[in-house]
Design a protein that fits this description.
The protein has 208 residues and is an alpha+beta fold. The protein is 54% helix and 21% strand. The chain is built from 4 helices and 5 strands. The chain has helices spanning 4-15, 32-105, 113-126, 158-169, and strands at residues 130-136, 140-141, 145-156, 175-184, 192-203. Strands 1, 2, 3, 4 and 5 form a 5-stranded antiparallel β-sheet that branches. The chain crosses the membrane at residues 33-55.
Length: 208
Amino acid sequence: MWNRERWAYEWQQLREVDWRDLDVKEAGGWPSLLKALCGGLALLVALLVMEWWVIGERRAALVSAQQQESRLLSDYRRQAGEAVQLPKMREQLATLEDQMARLRAILPTDAEIPSLLDSISDAAVDNRLTIETIRLRPTVTQPHYVEQPLDIQVRGDFHQIARFVADMASLSRLVTQHDFALERADSNGDTLRLSMLARTYRDREDAP
């Protein structure tokens, strides 16, 4: 260990150094204090390089791993929440499929359209109406179904027409009624003419 006199001597040697004449090749002859300072500086530079090159790279990897951990944890929580709801969602899906099956059951197929026209004609005849027109319009293709419009025109009294409309609504196949027009068919006013647009629907899978 250096005593006070040695420190004073080394400090005096350091002060007398001509910094312009220093040569690294002659570092062995430098004052001890200067060599210690240079060694400390070299160690500091080495530590900074290690921090920047080794530790800095690992710190970046650690930050990336922490971010990935956060994302995975968020995904896990979301999927866990979905898993809890899965039985309920399956139940709802089964209910929707059952409703779709019941709906498809009341939609006529392409082959059943003629029999549906017969059912409408029978409803008119049963209510003692005079049929003027029952004819198909061109089909209209929608994204999930095919729409089949029908023009219907019949004559009779008010009660007969009302019963006919009710019978159409209770057909086994789905028929919706639109654009009603009711007018007198004779000068006495006892006979009325009903004109309407009816629509039935087919599943697109059944469409030719």
